Amino acid sequence: MKIKTFYQQLLSHFSVILITVLVLSLLLSHYLETVVYEQKTEELTTYGQAILSDLRQTNRGSESILKSYGHVLNTRSIQYSLFDEQSSIVYSTGLKTPLIELNEDEWQALQNGQSVTVKQEFKRFDEAVTFVLLPYFERQQFIGGVLLTSPITGSRAIISQMNHYVLYTTAVASLLTLLLSGLLSIIHVRRIKRLRKAAAAVSGGDYTVRVPSSNFDEIGELSKDFNEMTEKLEVSMNEIELLENRRRQFMADVSHELRTPLTTIRGIIEGLRERMISEEEQDKALQLANDESKRLIRLVNENLDYEKIRSNQVQLNKQVLPLKELLEMTADQLQYAAAERGNTIIVSASNQLSVYADYDRLMQVLLNLTKNSIQFCEQGTIELRGYENQEETIIEIEDTGIGMDPLEIQQIWDRFYKAIMSRTSTPYGEFGLGLSIVKQLVLLHEGTIDVQSEKEKGTMFTIRLPK
């Protein structure tokens, strides 16, 4: 059987509060009843002690004193009787019988000097009463006692009135409880419905949905966790979509990069087999096939290198290295390539400057960035600078080349991106993998790399490596 959450919440809230109110009402009613009867018995005991005290002072008293007490107590609806050691009534303002009816335990208690209190008695008297028995001793000898009775109708009237008030209060409290329970149930159900609706949206592929959250209760915390989940799902789906787009682009780029050298090699092989290439041109054709095959090998190696670096399969052997020496080695290796394009390489760094890095991988970064500057700079200057602060060693590679616009700056780290899409060979590089590998290597060193560029004014790469 299906029971809606609203009714479950309403029933649980209402039943808990109602039971609490009822228990408190019963306890209060019992407490009030106890207080009323205790006050009545205390009143009877006080009057009884006063009567016995006057009897002792007047040597068993006079009838005028007894009558005066009778008048006073009558206004309080209290009757009293004196009896002797044989339970015979000596004086009474209410009882018509000659003897006081006492059971054995009550009589024994009186003889032992103890008072007897009964809150409600229905059988031994003409009406239901509360009564008190007090023993009377002279010279430590039991000679009787005094019985004071008061009808319980007055006490019951007080208790009944109090119970009516308690009943009215319980009814009002129950009504308020019902309203409050309904309000709370509506609030909770609405919050749950919001979560359910949002969950349905997520299952339908909408990861932008959010629900109001708070730290007020568990539902608020659940909403907060739900929002965090959808945020992560949204990020993950965006990453998946981006990776899928990159995968498609990667397959297209690889196919394009492979097609040209493979087509060239195939054409040369067919030309040689069909003897369409003259003997004078055969050496040149074979050299071209050799160059294209090497280019294919470089493409495969660069892809493997990129994947190894990106998946943290490359282990770095970090050590303290002289930075100026590394920059000068980079300049020496690329001096000829720079001179071919009319460029000048300048090294600027202190002899005492050092860097904490893997030698081979840092040289790979420096060579790649410097080659990139040479490729996009003609009749210009390429400066390799190094300096430090308290926490980092900073390397800058700046050129006066063709520069980039903001859109290109955002894309240069993408795999297979080429600033000039038509380029497949020097002077503008081959595969568009160099900067992607550079960034992964810098991240592997726990460093950062940034680029600043302006069209027709030049580009500067800044590498920051922790000491």
Structure at a glance:
By secondary structure, the chain is an alpha+beta fold. It has helices spanning 5-57, 63-75, 104-111, 152-203, 218-273, 279-310, 323-340, 359-375, 406-411, 434-444; strands at residues 79-84, 89-92, 116-121, 129-138, 141-151, 318-322, 344-348, 354-358, 381-388, 392-399, 448-454, 458-466.
Question: How would you sum up this structure, described in words?
Answer:
It contains 10 helices and 12 strands. A hairpin with a 4-residue loop joins strand 1 and strand 2. Helix content is 57%, strand content 18%. By secondary structure, it is α+β, with helices and mostly antiparallel strands. A 5-stranded antiparallel beta sheet has the order 2-1-5-4-3, sandwiched between helices. It has a 5-stranded mixed beta sheet with strand order 7-9-10-12-11, covered by helices on one side. It has a two-stranded antiparallel sheet with strand order 6-8. The longest helix has 56 residues. It folds into 3 domains: 153 residues, Beta-Lactamase (2-Layer Sandwich); 90 residues, Helix Hairpins; 151 residues, Histidine kinase-like ATPase, C-terminal domain (Heat Shock Protein 90, 2-Layer Sandwich), CATH 3.30.565. The chain is rod-shaped. About 3% of the residues have low confidence. Helix 4 runs parallel beside helix 5 and helix 6 runs parallel beside helix 10.
